[in-house]
């Protein structure tokens, strides 16, 4: 959708136009989706903790991959929910419920693995601070 013309029906003509649409989509998710705001807030806290604990470059790769993975899975969860609502007209559908539950399950799986990786990185560093 073009920013000036809400009825754009053709492909974007420039990279800037594509970037503007993508930025609009990200902003909309953070504005409308509470879980995206929660993930964003937690990502900021994790980044601050990583800076304070001076994690290694290798650990940064893992932390950033987990943050990116969480934001992407939450994005696909939001897309799935919106598509189900669009198709069903927001009326109850057993299949629609299964689709929404599976998309939310994907977020949960990513969150569990991200938490496990975070614990592996941060617990030893915090432990070292406590005992020294």
TrEMBL record:
Top-rank lineage group of the source organism: Bacteria
Gene Ontology MF term list: kinase activity
Pfam families on file: DAGK_prokar
UniProt cross-references to InterPro entries, sorted A to Z: DAGK, DAGK_sf, UDPK
Coiled coil regions, renumbered to chain: none
Main location: membrane
Location(s) in or outside the cell: Cell membrane
Family: Belongs to the bacterial diacylglycerol kinase family.
Protein name: Diacylglycerol kinase family protein
Source lineage: Bacteria, Bacillati, Bacillota, Bacilli, Lactobacillales
């Amino acid at each position: 959708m073009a920013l000036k013309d809400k009825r754009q029906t053709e492909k974007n003509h420039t990279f800037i136009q594509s970037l503007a649409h993508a930025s609009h989509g990200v902003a909309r998710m953070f504005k409308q989706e509470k879980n995206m705001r929660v993930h964003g807030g937690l990502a900021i806290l994790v980044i601050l903790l990583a800076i304070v604990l001076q994690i290694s470059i290798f650990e940064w790769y893992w932390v950033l991959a987990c943050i990116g993975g969480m934001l992407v899975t939450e994005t696909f969860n939001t897309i799935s929910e919106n598509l189900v609502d669009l198709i069903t007209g927001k009326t109850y559908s057993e299949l629609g419920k299964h689709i929404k539950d599976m998309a939310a399950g994907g977020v949960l799986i990513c969150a569990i693995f991200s938490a496990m990786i975070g614990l592996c990185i941060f617990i030893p560093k915090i432990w070292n601070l406590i005992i020294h």
